[in-house]
């Protein structure tokens, strides 16, 4: 074969690679860890291209024949929708620690303590950053990032290009999974929140029995001390429940991809 033959075969393969990178890149934009502000765009594009090469090697992907056509636009939109859905399901579960931090921080009196989260560039409670960091480390320790890549590759079997529109049942499952965030956040904050609730009840009874008692001088230091001690005691159990949150999010993503 002449050198011209090799040059002419590059364009279809490049178009196929770019078409595959749409789904992979959309998943990385929405998924936790990969969507962090600290990760440069060049790294995400390079990872999308590397995974796209693996997808092309494992699946016979046939992109649309014409680049500038309505069919191609709809196909690209469907690929982006699937990628965003895969990453968004994981991102929903990663919001549970923020809800738990709001419940605990408000009861402890440190709800005003916030800082810029390096993961998303927004201001979040300091306690929520701690929980999110622990959830991220556990997610990486459980090879969750590798399982995410595996599910993205497997999604081309369940939702091949051209038939990648999500059904109403799948979209409904994604919406209903959002309720799990609130349930998981409340369950994560339950051990510490229950002790702080008991402390508030005790301080309330003291205020009724001794009206001259300064509640701000007694209640705020007591709630802060009880909150810190209860966090130290309950953190092993909270760590175990963080593993449950990761497992549930990966299971929900697998159900979305594989049915």
Automatic annotation (TrEMBL):
Transmembrane intervals: 14-34, 41-61, 67-90, 97-116, 128-153, 174-203, 215-235
Taxonomy, superkingdom: Bacteria
Annotated protein name in UniProt: Flagellar biosynthetic protein FliR
UniProtKB keywords: Bacterial flagellum, Cell membrane, Cell projection, Cilium, Flagellum, Membrane, Transmembrane, Transmembrane helix
Organism of derivation: Sphingomonas immobilis
The keyword Aminoacyl-tRNA synthetase belongs to this UniProt entry's keyword annotation: no
Gene behind this protein: fliR
Cellular compartment(s): Cell membrane; Bacterial flagellum basal body
Purpose of the protein: Role in flagellar biosynthesis.
Membrane topology designation: Multi-pass membrane protein
UniProt cross-references to InterPro entries, sorted A to Z: FliR, T3SS_IM_R
Pfam families for this protein: Bac_export_1
Family statement: Belongs to the FliR/MopE/SpaR family.
């Amino acid at each position: 074969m002449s050198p011209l033959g090799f040059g002419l075969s590059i364009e279809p393969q490049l178009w196929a690679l770019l078409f595959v990178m749409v789904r992979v890149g959309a998943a990385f934009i929405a998924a936790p860890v990969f969507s962090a502000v600290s990760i440069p765009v060049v790294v995400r594009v390079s990872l999308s291209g590397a995974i796209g090469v693996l997808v092309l090697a494992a699946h016979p992907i046939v992109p649309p024949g014409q680049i500038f056509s309505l069919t191609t636009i709809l196909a690209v939109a469907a690929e982006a929708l699937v990628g965003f859905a895969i990453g968004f399901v994981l991102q929903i579960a990663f919001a549970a620690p923020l809800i738990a931090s709001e419940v605990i921080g408000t009861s402890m009196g440190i709800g005003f303590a916030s800082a810029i989260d390096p993961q998303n560039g927004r201001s979040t409670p300091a306690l929520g950053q701690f929980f999110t960091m622990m959830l991220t480390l556990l997610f990486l320790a459980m090879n969750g990032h590798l399982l995410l890549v595996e599910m993205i590759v497997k999604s081309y079997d369940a939702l091949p290009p051209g038939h990648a529109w999500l059904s109403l049942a799948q979209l409904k499952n994604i919406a209903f999974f959002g309720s799990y965030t609130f349930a998981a956040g409340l369950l994560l904050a339950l051990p510490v929140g229950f002790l702080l609730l008991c402390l508030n009840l005790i301080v309330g009874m003291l205020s009724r029995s001794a009206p001259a008692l300064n509640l701000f001088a007694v209640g705020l230091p007591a709630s802060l001390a009880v909150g810190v001690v209860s966090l130290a005691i309950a953190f092993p159990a909270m760590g175990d429940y963080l593993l449950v949150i990761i497992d549930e999010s990966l299971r929900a993503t697998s159900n979305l991809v594989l049915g």
